[in-house]
User: Fold this.
Amino acid sequence: MKTFLSVLTVLAAIVAFWYAACVPMNIKGVLDAAERGGAEVMPATSKVRRDMGAFGLVAGNTFAIAQTWEQDRPRLPAPHQVMTELWNTTVMKKVTSKRSLVYHAQVTLNATLLGFVIGTGLGILLAVGIVHSKVMDMSVMPWAIVSQTIPIIALAPMIIVVLYSIGVQGILPKAIISAYLSFFPVVVGMVKGLRSPDAMQLDLLKTYSANTAQGFWKLRLPSSMPYLFTSLKIGIAASLLGAIVGELPTGAVAGLGARLLAGSYYGQTVQIWSALFAAAILAGLLVALLELIEKMVLKRMGMAS
Amino acid sequence: MNTQTTTQAEAQSGAPEAVVEAKNLDLVFPTNDGPVQALKDVNLTINKGDFVSFIGPSGCGKTTFLRVMAALEHPTGGTITVNGMSPDEARKRRAYGYVFQAAGLYPWRTIAKNIKLPLEIMGYSKAEQDKRVEQVLELVELAGFGGKYPWQLSGGMQQRASIARALAFDADILLMDEPFGALDEIVRDHLNEQLLKLWARTNKTIGFVTHSIPEAVYLSTKIVVMSPRPGRITDVIESTLPRERPLDIRDSPEFIDIAHRVREGLRAGHSDD
Assistant:
């Protein structure tokens, strides 16, 4: 109960800070609109106001503070504006509607999950190779690390162009960008996990004259499970990021990335923010789901920490 | 393997049958600080049915020698045979079971499934596996605990389960590397008593590493005293105690005499530092 209250306090502080930040961020727009509407504003012309500090404007026009939280296209939308938009575009819309965030989230989710499956599979295969072959360890690992230093935002358009030119389009290019981001944490985690059995455990198998495959299935793979789940949780979040980034350069018409793009074209900041929140909530749900599976599996395996 | 052991026994009719024979054994580990002589000129014969303890301070090579017998390390000089063959071959023929200091049970397997681990690897049939698990669980007095997970058992019970795992595949030799080192004295006494009973019932040859003098004297028919830098044997004591050993034998003058000799051997080995 005490922790719950503490968490609530932190959350309240964040929201309070957000509301406070809206005031100086949006004050110029509010005053411009008020001037056009014939209200008395200090100073009177937008030309003079442009050169003034935001806090000075707030101090001189305290009547406008409430309006900074109610604009149509604010620079920074207030929390309740974002929440209202989220509510209207999820619960209040049919999920098949092009204006429903659920529809867009599901488009992105499909690419995310496909990419996650490809990336995880690839990551595990690479890790198995790296652990069992010195050559692969020395040749693959450096490239895997280098691959993650390239900004995905620069690489994504190229992947899409190249795949388009060989006739691949639709969900797959997005999934491949997702896989590109999600394979890496899986490789790193699984290499560590598959190497986690200590010398004594490996010696024990040696005394049975066990072969490599038996060592893998009976000892290395089960031992790696805690590491795998940690990697999967990072990987699924990276997958979602990849799918969204994959939607940006294509001018996609559906998906959370498309919502972000459309929002920025038309200055719909509330729409952008609600799409961002939808992405964050989706990532949170996916990670929570994996956490649940992790708890169940590790408990069953007697490895729960 | 059975036919081989019987022919050997016949050939030597009556004389004790050597299970392990080490001659002029040397082992040098290359390390960053230069080579380390882990074993130097080790000569030792272990007979069938012996209970041999290796005792000495850390770095004296007692664990290394056990590992050489198990083909986990390979000597750089001299010869060693186990059941008349090289340690590698002996391992392939399942000559020995090895018990480590930590029980090392897999947390995701039940006790029964843990004991089945070597049996699965060696390709025993399902029915045979079940039968053997029953047998060895009874042997280490853990009957009825097969369905439990390791974390549900005490440290002493876990170590008994790991002994059962080493017994499951009928190896003639049991190699134990400080198996009770991590357990408290009371549990240790109990397990020592049980181990002697188990040895009497199964007639295995046991190699046992320890750094407890009472443990070595209480358990062994032969005590090998070793000293470090370089690792070598300083004394081999044939115990005069009877095979039947109640716990209170440790108060007998004979026991105290042997313990004294072990202590002297250890002190002699230590005189250089």
Remarks:
- Chain A has two domains: 2-75, 101-300.
